[in-house]
TrEMBL record:
It comes from Agreia bicolorata. PROSITE patterns: DEHYDROQUINASE_II (PS01029). GO terms for biological process: amino acid biosynthetic process; aromatic amino acid family biosynthetic process; chorismate biosynthetic process; quinate catabolic process. One of its GO terms (molecular function) is 3-dehydroquinate dehydratase activity. The keyword Lyase applies. This is 3-dehydroquinate dehydratase. It is an enzyme of class 4 (lyase). InterPro entries: DHquinase_II, DHquinase_II_CS, DHquinase_II_sf. Keywords: Amino-acid biosynthesis, Aromatic amino acid biosynthesis, Lyase.
Length: 144
């Protein structure tokens, strides 16, 4: 199995962006951790984009290829109905989609308390740094 690990806007800046909130490791480090965790059980296909359309197209790709998704929608979490509808296509097709966040958005600004994704996600993991993704990977491999 392949697992798509999709990351939304500004997550390319991990490592230098607000390290007090997001830690000092970058996306390449995250990929290495997940590849090691997955070992021979899954192939990790980790991507990042700042572009809402591209992220939506990747979710369509997940539907067409029946590929489970770990999704950090970043700021799109809080307002993108287009992304929500695309994510719903995944879960309505019976494919797991886990929403993850590095930080705990509920412990931050009020606008981060709303997720338009959570209602259609298979599950949500937030607040554990990169371990949010590692826990999601365990869930997804276990669910498959
Ligand atoms: C985030 C939380 C979002 O509120 C924020 O816009 C991000 C990252 C997280 O992983 O903690 O970009 O999704």
């Amino acid at each position: 199995t392949t697992v798509l690990v999709l990351n939304g806007p500004n997550l390319s800046r991990l490592g230098s962006r607000e390290p007090d909130v997001y830690g000092s490791q970058d996306l390449d480090a995250l990929r290495s951790v997940l590849v090691a965790d997955a070992a021979d059980r899954a192939t990790i296909d980790l991507r990042q984009t700042d572009d809402e359309a591209e992220l939506i197209h990747w979710l369509h790709e997940a539907v067409d290829s029946s590929t489970p998704v770990i999704l950090n929608p970043a700021a799109f979490t809080h307002y993108s109905y287009g992304l929500r509808d695309a994510a719903a296509l995944v879960t309505k097709a019976g494919i797991p989609l886990v929403e993850v966040h590095i930080s705990n958005p509920h412990a931050r600004e009020t606008f981060r308390h709303t997720s338009v994704i959570s209602g259609i996600a298979t599950g949500v993991i937030a607040g554990f740094g990169f371990d949010s993704y590692r826990l999601a990977l365990r869930a997804v491999i276990g669910l498959n």
